[in-house]
């Protein structure tokens, strides 16, 4: 039987979509419904920010869409693949070959140089690096002089730029960024956000970012708002004021 997807997820432009996604942690009296029927599509070659109050389900949604966590019901679609139906082995392959990750804590391997860190996911996937893209990314990110350094010899901002290069060099179907500026000063944070923004514009990259920061969300094309595990609205062409106002209004409804 053909699955009937709602319009948001049917959108041919959606690189990633959730369809009636439910995630329940625990059971019985202590069960927490972290996602309570989320349906949302993330358009290809767009930069989308996911925002909402603490505990609204942002990280859970990202983890389910990235194959890092399994949903209780519903679909988590990457391209045509429903991640909720895949084995751990397939999910590892999907994460390695089709998704780029940028985490708040950088997650670089300390014993490898910056260059080795950037190329590691491609190596693990048995793929050759596109040297043009590697050169373009490392030059645009201003880390060409740092490639032989280990993460411990780099500033936080430089480490995150290495992580961004690692996420983009495989040309993944989507980059998931989880609070990418959370550990950075405002200048380094702005550089990383601008780079993500430009990767969407210049390379046609799809980026989905979880953030608490209205200033960071203002770099996105669109903001999806979550509250209590549900989609609570969205903002096209967000700016600092519109995002702050939307979050204030969500907080007032609680
Ligand atoms: N592993 C877990 N076990 C039990 N409950 C969990 C677990 N992970 C998350 N939760 C609960 O699920 C709900 C959603 O959590 P989630 O981390 O997705 O929210 P969030 O919007 O990312 O929050 P924050 O902004 O504080 O990071 C919360 O009530 C949280 O306590």
UniProtKB/TrEMBL annotation:
Keywords: ATP-binding, Nucleotide-binding, Transport. PANTHER family: ABC TRANSPORTER RELATED (PTHR24220:SF685), IMPORT ATP-BINDING PROTEIN (PTHR24220). Gene3D superfamilies: P-loop containing nucleotide triphosphate hydrolases. This is ABC transporter ATP-binding protein. InterPro entries: AAA+_ATPase, ABC_transporter-like_ATP-bd, ABC_transporter-like_CS, ABC_transpr_LolD-like, MacB-like_ATP-bd, P-loop_NTPase. Pfam families: ABC_tran. GO terms for molecular function: ATP binding. CDD domains: ABC_MJ0796_LolCDE_FtsE. Signal peptide: none annotated.
């Amino acid at each position: 039987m053909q699955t009937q997807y709602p319009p948001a997820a049917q959108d041919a432009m959606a690189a990633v979509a959730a369809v009636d996604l439910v995630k329940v942690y625990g059971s019985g009296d202590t069960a927490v419904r972290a996602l309570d029927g989320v349906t949302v599509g993330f358009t290809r070659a767009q930069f989308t920010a996911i925002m909402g109050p603490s505990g609204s389900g942002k990280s859970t949604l990202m983890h389910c869409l990235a194959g890092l966590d399994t949903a209780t019901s519903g679909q988590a679609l990457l391209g045509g693949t429903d991640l909720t139906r895949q084995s751990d082995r397939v999910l590892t392959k999907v994460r390695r070959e089709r998704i780029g990750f940028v985490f708040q804590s950088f997650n670089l391997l300390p014993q490898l140089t910056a260059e080795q860190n950037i190329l590691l996911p491609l190596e693990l996937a048995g793929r050759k690096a596109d040297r043009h893209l590697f050169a373009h990314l490392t030059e645009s990110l201003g880390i060409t002089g740092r490639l032989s350094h280990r993460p411990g010899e780099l500033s936080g901002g430089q480490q995150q730029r290495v992580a961004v290069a690692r996420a983009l060099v495989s040309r993944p179907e989507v980059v998931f960024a989880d609070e990418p500026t959370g550990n950075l000063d405002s200048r380094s944070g702005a550089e990383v956000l601008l780079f993500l923004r430009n990767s969407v514009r210049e390379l046609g990259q799809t980026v989905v970012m979880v953030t608490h920061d209205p200033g960071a969300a203002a770099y996105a094309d669109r903001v999806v708002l979550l509250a209590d595990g549900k989609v609570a609205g969205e903002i096209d062409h967000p700016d600092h004021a519109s995002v702050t106002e939307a979050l204030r209004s969500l907080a007032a409804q609680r």
